[in-house]
Design a protein that fits this description.
The protein has 137 residues and is an alpha+beta fold. It is 42% helix and 30% strand. It has helices at residues 14-27, 32-52, 72-82, 110-121, and strands spanning 56-66, 87-94, 99-109, 126-136. The chain binds nickel (II) ion.
Amino acid sequence: MEENITRIGVSLPKNLLDEFDLIIKTRGYSSRSEAIRDAIRNYIMEYKWLEKEEGEIVGVVYMIYDHTVKGVSDAIIDLQHEFLNIIITTMHIHLSKDYCLEIILVKGEMKDVKNLVDKAMAVKGVMNVKLVTAIKG
Ligand code: NI
């Protein structure tokens, strides 16, 4: 069945697109549009999953960021102080000359964890934020 298709124009940094193209080629996508549709579906699914969860959880928040972006390290520290009631511990790994990985162990209400994740995603210089929940109850 043919879906209603809308065309959109998107501006992307070249290196981001190059990397995306490389991945979709490896995964065997026949077109970039198809891969982008899948990526958007995953993004929506992940968001909805986070929306639905309630109650107390134990989880790990991973975030990758470029520490050379002005203010990003301070913003991440400020954020963690804001959420100190749900943060058990934090591990920082220097991935490369520019990139850092922050692993935050959290325990608390899902809505608070989600709030932390949303705010982390909005920090300029943060490239990727993932939440993996270990226990939900
Ligand atoms: Ni670092």
